[in-house]
Amino acid sequence: MWPQTRLTDLLGIAHPIIQAPMAGSATPDLAAAVSAAGGLGSLGLGFATPDDIRRACAALRSLGARRFNLNFFVMPQLPPQAADAQARMRARLATFYDALGLGPVPDLAPAPPPHGFAPDLVAALEETRPPVVSFHFGLPDADALARIRAAGCRVLCSATTVAEARALEAAGVDAIIAQGWEAGGHRGAHRPSGPGDGVGTLALVPQVVDAVRLPVIAAGGIGDGRGIAAAFALGAAGVQMGTAFLSCPEAGTDPARRALLSRAADTDTMLTDAFSGRAARAVRSPYAMAMADLAGQLAPYPQMYDVSGPLEAAGPDSEHPFASFHLYGQAAALNRAMPAGDLVAWLVKDALARMPGRAL
Asked: 125 and 146 in contact (C-beta within 8 Å)?
């Protein structure tokens, strides 16, 4: 049916469509519906606890999901914000806090330690054995990765450059998610990158395909069957799609973002580090645009949330809030509001109809 089956064979799924993890928006109901339709449903656990892992696996299995993916963040050691950069940032923020009547800019919480993958998390994966585990921002160390794979988990990881893809192959992952600049949410760069840095999916995927021997999963700007067919033409073995699933009723998409998605346009979003301290594609807001000239100088992830959070919370009921961190990608205008299982079926039919000799 599909031009190649390296990914479907690897993951034990019928269709090479992975629903992106999207922490906070991907729900067990969404992931289970995607998996039931033959794709791979995912849950984003970010900085999980062992109990989070146990609860996620139990919830998905109770809904009948046999094949699913749990996604985690693995953060490198980040340098602290320079004192002069922090002074500039706080001066800029003070004008916004004053205008909104929020009082003084709060102090940053102490920088957290590096977010590696702790032994108790590895043990929880060994206990629960999710079929697929994926990582964003980098990989656990070699010992942890070996234990996860020995537990029977297939391992995926995001790469935003060819160099990152080569490093992932050398580390021993099973497949690589080549995340293009168009993708919504946080970029999976292994080191913090500026909002202006990035390679588009159309350019990135074939270069990664040429650089590694592993199956490559195209991600970013893929919103319908045309995008899936194009990914295969570039040499990808499958796709990961996030924004497309945000309009499904099973997704945990907040009402404000659903309204934005219903009238989305190609120029709605921008890459900004003004909310979290790491580059993420989100809807344009006055705050993000006002902070753009300080990109790369802000408090590192996740400390930036300490000072952006009050600004975001200041106008949640406003139609056009000053600061809103609504994450979605550049292909949002292609979204279809339908149940996740129906969306997977439509994507499969639409993609195969555009591949010579592959129509259902």
From this structure: no
Phi, psi of 270 (to 5 degrees): -150, 160
What DSSP string describes 234-256?
A: TT-SEEEESGGGTTSTTS---HH
- pLDDT beyond 70 at 310: yes
CA dist 271 and 291 (Å) reads 11
Domain boundaries, the chain: 6-78+114-251+335-353, 82-112+269-327
Task: Give 40's DSSP letter.
Answer: B
pLDDT, tens digit, 9 for 90 and up, residues 45-93? 998 899 999 999 999 999 999 999 999 999 877 788 999 999 999 999 9
Percentage above 90 pLDDT, the chain: 88
The topology under which CATH files domain 6-78+114-251+335-353 is: TIM Barrel (3.20.20)
Closest among 36, 56, 63, 64 to 127, alpha carbons compared:
56
d(CA 203, CA 181): 10
Among residues 303, 282, 329, 275, the alpha carbon closest in space to that of 75 is found at 303
3-state secondary structure of 87: helix
* Segment holding 27, helix H or strand E: none
Degrees to nearest 5, angle at CA 232 with 226 and 237: 130
Taking Cα atoms as reference points, which of 273, 295, 285, 265 lies closest to residue 326? Answer: 285
